[in-house]
Amino acid sequence: MPKTIREVAVAYNKAAPLYDYMNRVYFFRRDKRFRSMLAERLNLKPSDAVLDLCCGTGLDFPFLLQKIKNQGTLLGVDLSSKMLQQAKKKSGSERISLARSDATHLPFRDEAFDAIFVSFCLKITPAHEKVIEEAARVLKPFGKIGILGNHKPSGALRLPGIILIKVLSDMAKIDFEIDLEEHLSKKFMILEDRKMYGGLVQLLVVRNSAIHTTDKKSNNNFRITTNLENLSTASKRRMNDA
Ligand SMILES: C[S@@+](CC[C@H](N)C(=O)[O-])C[C@H]1O[C@@H](n2cnc3c(N)ncnc32)[C@H](O)[C@@H]1O
User: Fold this and answer.
1) Topology of domain 5-241, CATH
2) Domain locations in the chain?
3) 195-218, pLDDT tens digit by residue?
4) Which ligand 1 atom is nearest residue 80's CA?
């Protein structure tokens, strides 16, 4: 299912006002448990700098904020301005900053973050391999990434799941054929891989096993306090195209 960054941004700009409601209906509020469980797995310290990649409307924020308390920083990044507008309503804490950016070209310096949280994005974004590469670049050596992803249902849900998959592929731009473990294992050590919610949700925890070897981007030397107003001109230009 070929798609572009622009198509994804348009789809999520449209979905933004109703996103939290649709999320509640789809998960029967169980996603709170998945998000909380994943935040727990990251073993965050209060002083940590955490990146919420493709943060959407900020549904992960409460669980991450609870871990970093009043000392760490949480940066939410998304390419959809409308999703970020919703996230802004949940970012009352001074520990949270938001940035509009494409996850395939993050405007942050290498090894800027202690941990990364990515929920329900890697099977949606075009060029997920590049997103994984960027995550490895901005993550500190031995830092952890927690991932929640949509997954093909198994067991009793396998047959009714075929219709669900068709609907979600069209509406939410999810590509269920992507094998996340395979792609992640090229860059990271997989610590946990668990299927939940009748197989519809996959939780993965991976560790950056070594100092990354991708190119140093000296002109992308952003500090983690970056906010929507101070993204680089190049980044803004890319975003305006979306
Ligand atoms: C299904 S939503 C998930 C949002 C949130 N993480 C959650 O769990 O509710 C997917 C989000 O990924 C964002 N997204 C997709 N591709 C992206 C990319 N390349 N860079 C930044 N954000 C992206 C979309 O704009 C959308 O907000």
Assistant:
1) Rossmann fold (3.40.50)
2) 5-241
3) 998 888 999 999 997 655 444 443
4) 25
